[in-house]
C-alpha cells in the first residue's frame, strides 16, 4: 500500500514537472500559476511514507531540475509583485498592501513559527539579524522586523543587484524599516568580515539548491559566524522535498550544535532547522565523552532522529508575554 501511494505521488509530480519544463516562460501567468498551484497541493500533504533519498537516480535528477524551476519561478513571482507594489502604491506605503502577494499568509505563519523557535533558544532579543538570500521581496525580514523584532537591525544579502535595489525601493517609504533594513549585493561566500556581528543568521531555502552548494554555504557561515550565534536554516521534508532542497541535520551542519528540527504539517512548506555555532575550544585534549572532536571544536553527534511527535510551540517566550497563535509542527528529537 505504501509503495502504491509513493508511486502515485511521484508519478503525479513527474507529470507536473514535464508540463512545467515545457513552458515558454515561468513569469506569472494563468498557466504558470495553475501548474505550480497543482504542484504545491500535491506535495504539501503529510507524506511519512516517502523518503526522497531512496528514490531512483532518474527521479533524483528530475527532482533537482524541478527545484531549480521552482526557484526561478519564485524569483520571477517576487520580482513581479515587488514591482507591482512600488508602482501601484507609490503615493502611499507599499508595505501596507503586502497581502496582494499570493503567499503572504504563508510568510506570516512561517515567520511566526521561526520567531517562536528562536524564542526557545535565544536568551535576549537579537540586536542584529542577517538574512542570506533575501530576494526582491524580503518578506521574512519585513514581517520579523515589523511584528516581532521592532528594535532589531536586519542586514539582507543577495547576489542579485537588481533584487537588492528592488527590495530597498520597497521599504524606502517606511521611515522605520528603511532605517533598520540594510541591503548588500554580495555572494555570501565572498563575505568574510562582519558575519560575526550577527546574533542570528537566516539561510533562505533556495540558497544552494544542490547538497554540495548548500553545505559549502553552511561551512562558510560556520567559519565566519560568532561562537554561540544561531543559524536558522530552511529545509524540506517528505514530498515537500520536491519543491525545496533538504538539509540533513546529521551531516550538513558541521561546526554547529543542532538544537531543534521542525517539520510543519500545515500549509507552511519549509521545515526549520535551528543550530548554534559551536564554541572555539582552546585545548585539543578533551575526551570524546565530553562531546568534543579533539581538534578544537565541538563534535556533532551523528545520530538520526529517533522520534517525531506533534507539539505546540507556546506563544509565551523570552521576548514578550502576549498570547500568540499556536503553530502545530512536528519536532524531530535529535
From TrEMBL:
<comment type="similarity">
    <text>Belongs to the nicotianamine synthase (NAS)-like family.</text>
</comment>
<keyword id="KW-0808">Transferase</keyword>
<dbReference type="InterPro" id="IPR029063">
    <property type="entry name" value="SAM-dependent_MTases_sf"/>
</dbReference>
<keyword id="KW-0949">S-adenosyl-L-methionine</keyword>
<comment type="function">
    <text>Synthesizes nicotianamine, a polyamine which serves as a sensor for the physiological iron status within the plant, and/or might be involved in the transport of iron.</text>
</comment>
<dbReference type="InterPro" id="IPR004298">
    <property type="entry name" value="Nicotian_synth"/>
</dbReference>
<protein>
    <recommendedName>
        <fullName>Nicotianamine synthase</fullName>
        <ecNumber>2.5.1.43</ecNumber>
    </recommendedName>
</protein>
<dbReference type="Pfam" id="PF03059">
    <property type="entry name" value="NAS"/>
</dbReference>
<dbReference type="GO" id="GO:0030410">
    <property type="term" value="F:nicotianamine synthase activity"/>
</dbReference>
